[in-house]
Design brief:
- The chain is α/β, with parallel strands linked by helices and 184 residues long.
- The chain has a single domain, classed as DHBP synthase, CATH 3.90.870.10.
- It has a 5-stranded mixed β-sheet. Strands 7-2-1-8 form a 4-stranded mixed β-sheet.
- Helix 1 packs across helix 5.
- It starts with a helix and ends in an 8-residue tail after the last strand.
- The model has no long low-confidence stretch (mean pLDDT 96).
Length: 184
């Protein structure tokens, strides 16, 4: 199956409440529709992750996420835009009504506008942001290959996109979109 066919299948799976694994800038991510509570809960169960921690979402563009977050000061917004698309994640305060199953105990969400071609294409074809949490069990090293994803999750995922992660050595840097301060 070609990458294009895998992306098409991934989008269909997520639109029907499924969970996929896909390459990102540094590691494989687990993805689903962030507005589908059952799908998000399935990811949390697979990872054995505490629901209070919250999850990262990725998008293909600012347009896909701007309606979900509180405005930030213009100077900081320009700083954020200068890092996107790319391997930098920003934590934004969410607008009322954004799903708590994504934010956990927080009133904020971590967002990245990705430049990984496969992850970006998935978001473009999905026509919105998707969950992007590392493909690993809580506290363990994230998967960097399709074989590692398969070993960790066996047949518990609906699809693993067979492609390579980007060239980043470590998971993305995270900053506060409120203060500009580095968090990770």
């Amino acid at each position: 199956m070609t990458i294009e066919q895998q992306i098409e299948q991934a989008v269909s799976i997520m639109k029907n409440g499924g969970v996929i694994a896909y390459p990102t800038e540094a590691v494989f991510g687990l993805g689903c529709d962030p507005f589908n509570e059952q799908a998000v809960q399935h990811i949390l169960e697979l990872k054995q992750r505490d629901t209070s921690k919250g999850l990262i979402i990725i998008a293909a563009s600012w347009k896909q996420i701007k309606d979900f977050v509180q405005p930030v000061p213009e100077l900081l917004f320009r700083q954020i835009q200068a890092t996107w698309p790319g391997p930098t994640t920003w934590i934004f305060h969410t607008k009322p009504g954004f799903p708590q199953w994504v934010t956990g105990k927080h009133n904020s969400v971590a967002i990245r506008v990705t430049d990984h071609p496969i992850a970006k294409s998935i978001c473009e074809q999905f026509n919105g942001p998707i969950i992007s949490t590392s493909a690993n069990l809580e506290g363990q090293a994230p998967a960097k290959t399709t074989n590692e994803v398969q070993t960790i999750f066996n047949d518990k995922l609906d699809l693993i996109i067979d492609a390579k992660v980007g060239d980043e050595e470590k998971p993305t840097t995270i900053y506060s979109a409120t203060t500009g301060q580095r968090i990770r």
